[in-house]
Amino acid sequence: MNYIKKKLYIEKISIPNIAKKYGTPCYCYSYSKLKENIINFKKNFSSFLPLICFAVKSNTNVNIIREIKKFGLGADVVSKGELMMALKAGINPSKIVFSGVGKTSNEIGFAIDKKILLINAESLSEIKEINRIAKLKNKKIRIGVRLNPNTDAKTLSQISTGKKENKFGVNKNTLYGIINYCKNSKNIDLKCLSVHIGSQILDHRPYEKMLKTVSQIINKTDHKFEFIDLGGGMGITYTDKNKKLNYKKYNIAILKFLRNHKVKIIFEPGRSIIGNTGTLVSKITYIKDSGSKKFIILDAAMNDLMRPALYGAFHKTLPVTKSNKASKEPYEFVGPICESTDKFVTLKKFQMLKEKDLIAICDVGAYGMSLSSNYNLRPKPVELLINGSKIKVIRKRQKHKDII
C-alpha cells in the first residue's frame, strides 16, 4: 500500500474506488505481496529445498490457496474441512500434512482414503486409533508424531504451542514409547518427527534451541525419520517496533542440523506467507465524544477481525485520505457489536477524522477472515484479490438471507 495524492492505494487501485464499488467492510489482498512473500520464503531456504505446506488455518479462501498452489506449495491442515478445501484448491495429496490434537475417527479415515503425505499424530491414543482404522482398511499409513520440546517461543501466551503446559505434542519419554509401538505395527509407518513451538515468532533463538532438542532426541533413538516437520510460526512486523525474524540465522541452524541428520525438512508457514497481504477497509459510521476520548465507531467489528478482542493483538490503522489536521483527543476505534471487547486499537495521535471517512486496518491476511463469525448475526464481508489494476471477487459478501 502507498499514498498517491493523499489517497491510499492497494497496488494500482485507490481504496476509495474499491469501497465505492464493493462497499465496506471489505477484505482486500495484494497479489504482488503474496507472490513476493512466497518467493522470498523459498529463497531464504533454497539451500536445502524444503517441502513448504501452507497453513490453511491462517486463510481458508479457496482462491487464495489456488494461487499459493501455483508456486508449488502444499498444505498443512488441522481438520477434515481444511483438508477438503486444500484438495478443492488442487493441492496434491502427496504435499498435504494433517496436524491437530483431536482428529476424529471420521477425519482419520477420510485422510487415509485421500492418500495424503502424513498424518501428524499428537498422542499414543491417536496413533492407536490410526492403527485400528488402517487395519480395517488393510493399509499401511505414513504418520508423523509431534514432539513437545518444552521450548518457549517468546510470543503471546495464547499462541504458544511448544511448552510442556501446552496441549500440543508428546514429551520425549512418550515419544520413545510411541516409536516402539510403531515398530510392532504392520499398519503404521512412522516417517516424520514433527515440532511446532508457536506463532508470531520474531527471534531465531527459540528455533535454534528447538533444533538442538530435536537433534538430541533423534540421537537417542535408532529410528530413521525421513522427514522433520519444523512447523511454522514465523512472525511478521505488525508494528514499526517489531524486529524482523532473522531467516539467515535460522537457515544456518537448519543446515547445521542437516549435517548430522539426513532428512527432508517440512515447513508449515501461514502468517509469513499471507499476513501482510491483507487489508480490512471500513467506514466510520459515527464519532462519539466521551469527554476524555472519541469513539470512532466503524462498520467493521470483532466478528470481522477477532484478533484484537481475542488476545489484544495490534494492527496498524491508517486513514484512507490523508489530512494535515491532527485530532486533539485520543481515538478509540471500535465496532458496533454489543461487547466492550469489540475494539481494534486506541491511538493518542491520529489525524482528524469525520463520519463516513474510510479507515484501513493493516496486516489482516492471516487469522482475519478465517477467525470471522456471524456474531450478532452480522454477514461476513466481501473478499477481493487485487493484482495491479485488476480486482477479482474471491468471496462474495454474505447476505442476511444466507444466515437466517
How would you portray this structure in words?
The structure is a single chain. The chain has 404 residues and is of the alpha/beta class. The protein folds into two domains: 2-29 and 275-403, Lyase, Ornithine Decarboxylase, Chain A, domain 1 (Beta Barrel); 31-272, TIM Barrel. The protein has helices spanning 15-22, 31-44, 62-69, 80-88, 105-113, 124-136, 172-183, 205-219, 247-260, 271-274, 307-311, 400-403, and strands spanning 2-4, 7-10, 13-14, 26-30, 51-55, 74-77, 96-98, 118-121, 141-146, 188-194, 227-229, 264-267, 278-289, 294-298, 317-319, 331-334, 343-347, 358-362, 382-387, 390-395. Helix 5 (105-113) links the parallel strand 7 (96-98) and strand 8 (118-121). Helix 5 crosses helix 6 (124-136) and helix 8 (205-219) packs parallel to helix 9. The protein is elongated and about 70 Å long. The chain starts with a strand and ends with a helix.
Shape: elongated
Number of helices: 12
> Can you tell me the CATH superfamily of the largest domain?
Alanine racemase
Quick check: average pLDDT? 94
| Low-confidence spans | none
Question: According to CATH, what is the topology of the largest domain?
Answer: TIM Barrel
**CATH top level class name of the largest domain:** Alpha Beta
Sheet with the most strands? 9 strands, mixed
Strand portion:
15-25%
Helix content: 25-40%
Q: What does the radius of gyration come to? A: 23 Å
Secondary structure: number of strands: 20
Q: At CATH's second level, what is the architecture of the largest domain?
A: Alpha-Beta Barrel
Structural class: alpha/beta
Overall number of structural domains: 2
End-to-end C-alpha gap: 36 Å
